[in-house]
Write a structure and sequence with these properties.
Elements lengths: L2 E6 L3 H11 L5 E7 L2 H11 L3 E5 L7 H9 L8 E6 L7 H7 L3 E4 L4 H12 L7 H10 L20 H11 L4 H8 L3 H15 L4 H10 L9
Parallel strand pairs: 1-2, 1-3, 3-4, 4-5
Keywords: DNA-binding, Phosphoprotein, Transcription, Transcription regulation
Protein name: Response regulator transcription factor
Pfam families: GerE, Response_reg
């Protein structure tokens, strides 16, 4: 069955462009459009999309609050949110990730990247581009802890190896890259990542990366 996509952006021309790209793919179907967050909520309830391609800055309700309501407790469906941001990295993207977005994509990304990102998110994975994520978190380091705050109690529930894995996830490494870094199998890494998400109450790798920065476990700008 085709992946059902809802387009949410306050610029009609952008929505038209996205629709043309996505409808050229046999496994993708654009089921609706919305020009702001409130319309998006209505469309999600009515259309039950698999993926919502969400702009951040919109009138009436922005993409952050819409994402929070779509992915939060009591949500009406299984929709995943893929956030769109501008090239200079919107400061609200961190808030959107914290709110439950499964990843983010630059608005000027090539068509094949847009298509692949939707497929990845629809499959339940996180769209976490290492270089962009690092730039994002480093750029807004002033909004994150300095590293001098007390360590969150939840971190103490992790084993040493799980902490290592969390740090590497925060750097944007894939399971294969983490496996190579730690000289273990990808299956072992996947198990560790699952334990980290469960113990910290996180839904995916994107939220794990944000948590690592917010908790002070990883410092912006550090290698």
């Amino acid at each position: 069955m085709a992946i059902r996509v809802l387009l949410v952006d306050d610029q009609p021309l952008l929505r038209t462009g996205f629709r043309m790209i996505l409808e050229a793919e046999q496994d993708l179907a654009v089921v609706g459009e919305a020009g702001d967050g409130l319309q998006a909520l209505d469309q999600v309830r009515a259309l039950q999309p698999d993926v919502v391609l969400m702009d951040i800055r919109m009138p009436r309700m922005d993409g952050v609050e819409a994402t929070r309501q779509i992915t939060g407790p009591g949500r009406d469906g299984p929709a995943k949110v893929l956030v769109l941001t501008t090239f200079d990295l919107d400061e609200y993207v961190v808030e959107a990730l914290r709110a439950g977005a499964s990843g983010f994509l630059l608005k000027d990304a090539p068509a094949d990247e847009l298509v692949q990102a939707i497929r990845v998110v629809a499959a339940g994975e996180a769209m976490l581009a290492p270089s962009i994520t690092r730039r994002l978190l480093d750029k807004y380091a002033g909004h994150l802890p300095s590293g001098e705050e007390p360590v969150p109690p939840a971190l103490n529930t992790l084993t040493e190896r799980e902490v290592e894995v969390l740090k590497l996830v925060a750097r944007g490494l894939s399971n294969a890259e983490i496996a190579a870094e730690l000289f273990v199998s990808e299956t072992t890494v996947k198990t560790h990542v699952g334990h980290v998400l469960t113990k910290l109450g996180l839904r995916d790798r994107v939220q794990a990366a944000v948590y690592a920065y917010e908790s002070g476990l990883v410092r912006p700008g550090a290698q």
